[in-house]
Design a protein that fits this description.
137 residues; alpha/beta; six-stranded mixed beta sheet; 18% strand
Length: 137
């Protein structure tokens, strides 16, 4: 599986997840938007760009509501699996986001391996009973 972190998440967190995933056989690549596209690339550009070598697992805090729904439609038709982090993630410091991503990462990888596509909300709070909520893009 290949994971793509949107620009609203730190490239440092994406790269840390890449390094921490080195022992996971089912994770072949973890990249941040800025590894492949310019920082200001519109969502529709990178979503369509990922289609060329997809499918990907996309992580974002965005709700993809710009451009009159074109981004959501592009994601729906792409076949990518999307994990939408609750907006509370953006209210936290870099270090708290990092700690929480490390806690959620095994569940994100496991869930991504169970589905071919879909969208799921990743809550900020994490416990042994925490679950994703499936949503429609």
């Amino acid at each position: 599986m290949r994971f793509f972190f949107d620009n609203n998440l730190s490239p440092h967190i994406a790269h840390a997840m890449r390094e921490l995933s080195g022992t996971l056989a089912n994770v072949s690549e973890v990249v941040h938007l800025t590894d492949r596209y310019r920082r200001s690339a519109p969502d529709i550009e990178w979503v369509r760009g990922l289609d060329a070598d997809g499918p990907w697992v996309v992580l974002s805090v965005d709700r993809f509501k710009k451009c009159g729904g074109a981004e959501r439609e592009a994601l729906r038709s792409s076949g990518h699996t999307v994990f939408l982090l609750e907006s509370q993630w953006l209210k936290q410091t870099f270090w708290l986001q990092s700690e929480r991503m490390v806690r959620w990462w095994p569940q994100i990888v496991a869930q991504a391996g169970l589905v071919e596509r879909g969208a799921f909300v990743v809550p900020w709070h994490h416990s042994s009973k925490s679950k994703f909520t499936a949503v429609r893009l």
